[in-house]
Amino acid sequence: MPSDPPDFVHIITVEVFYICVNFLHEVNAPIRRTRITKVESMPTPAPFPETLDAVLEYFSNRTPQAEFAVEGRNRLTFSTANQYVDRYSAWMDRHGVRPGDRIALIAAPGIPYVLTLMAASRLGAIYVGVNPRYSRDEISHVIETTQPTILLHAPAPGEGDLATRAADAAGAIPVHQVPLAAIAEGPATPRRSPATSRDVAVIVFTSGSTGRPKGAALHHGGLIGASHGQHDHLDGEPRRYLSNLPINHVGAIMNTTMGCLIGGGTLIFQARFNPAGVLDLIERERVQTWLQVPAMFTMAVNHADFDTRDLSSLRSICIGGGAVSAPTLERLRSTGAEIFVEYGQTEVMSSLSYSDPGAPDEVLLNSIGRFDPRFETRIADQTGRSCGTGEIGEIQARGDCVLRGYWGNEQATRDAFTVDGWLRTGDLACLRPDGNVSIKGRLREMIKSGGYNVYPREVEATIETHPAVAEVVVFGIPDEVFGEAVHCAIECRPGATVTGEALKAHCAASLANYKIPKVFAVSAALPRLGNGKIDRAAIRTRGATTAGAA
Length: 550
Fold this sequence. Notes:
Blueprint: H1 14-27, H2 29-35, H3 52-62, E1 67-71, E2 74-77, H4 78-94, E3 102-106, H5 111-123, E4 126-130, H6 136-146, E5 150-153, H7 162-170, E6 175-177, H8 180-183, E7 200-205, E8 215-219, H9 220-235, E9 240-243, H10 250-261, E10 266-269, H11 275-285, E11 289-292, H12 294-301, E12 316-319, H13 326-333, E13 338-343, E14 353-354, H14 361-366, E15 370-371, E16 376-380, E17 393-398, E18 405-406, H15 410-415, E19 423-431, E20 437-442, E21 447-449, E22 452-454, H16 456-463, E23 469-479, E24 483-492, H17 500-508, E25 519-523, H18 536-549
Parallel strand pairs: 1-10, 3-4, 3-5, 4-7, 5-6, 9-10, 11-12, 12-13, 24-25
Antiparallel strand pairs: 1-2, 7-8, 8-18, 13-14, 14-15, 16-17, 17-19, 19-20, 21-22, 23-24
């Protein structure tokens, strides 16, 4: 177990909150008794859920027959799902899983995934998701880092024999298929999780854009708090969510699972992303909240079926994991849904900021919205001073919204925090005069060219306005004259082409000459990570190799 990050200074703690509530309760007791005569006969409100599985139990008691999850022809109500989780946790108990143990799962998004997540929580164990597209070496890295008590697997479309791949990577760790038959049979003995809100619920491995992926230990309270934040911003009522992000990703665990369930909504699973299937699910299952990364949205809106499908059920569309292009945003607007952008990362339970309802295109294209006031956040310079409006600094966060640490890596945990307990996100940003926050790039990606600071996101945003451009990555390459030269990689929209000269002229209208890329590398498709995001490290490596050869 990693050591705790430095102590945090909280504006108000949960304990203080409840002391205040109890004090007011006692002060106003005579008033209550004289004005309200039926309070004593009303049921006592259930305690607020502190663990992931308690959210499921909460709604199984209040809306037992409401749909919990849909996967193809399989449908589960909250009541049935809660019973299945009790049986599943009993099965895990018989196989030696104890509180604090890790449970690893290789599977696609679907019912086996969400039941495993909930059963691990109910046992007080820790869920570790593994992407079925991982190679044997990538699976082995996860296993070696977390040392799970058991490695589970469930069928994933297009991934061949997962059982063999799991067994090859597991070593001496027992490997089992998710016991769906056992889950669906026999009596369900109710269980209560021994975990608390501060205990680690899941370990999520970062993308590994620099070095080997690290396992971020995320706790129950942080994930539930982030889920409430998303529900309050996007939904405000039970919603039907499309859930198709990889099960090892914080976007799946928080955004498209707990963000839905915290409001009593329904998970509509898609085991493997494909744009035609997404549009079909939205129409057939009347999906109301659609949250994806930009590349997924771009592929969906460019699909031939987009204009013919009935997408009128959509109430909220949320873009996370990067900026979307103007043409894609325009197509999404045609659905009539409210559109949001959000910002976050694994280490902050996924989301720290959201755009306002009704935000105009300019805000959605050029900002990440406003920081959620329930979280401690700041934009700070290298000395720790909070930056003023227009000043560029690093986004930092602290309190209950940040990870407990990197599993088994105390040095990385220490390095991630300032001396006064702020998590360093590595993201550069500035506060705009309108109160929204604009991302300028990654701290490690800032380019120093000829003595000038060049922020990749600013240049990318300009290039994205060209009608032929679908995706763009701006990066620095070592240069003998300038220290670093600005380069970029371009992915064109389907059927479109563009030249470097045309893009240079396009940039010249909006950017200083030192910000204009020296090289525009245009390709049919940019490399991507397993979670669908652009693989910036691979693009930089390829750009450096090409520049060196030249």
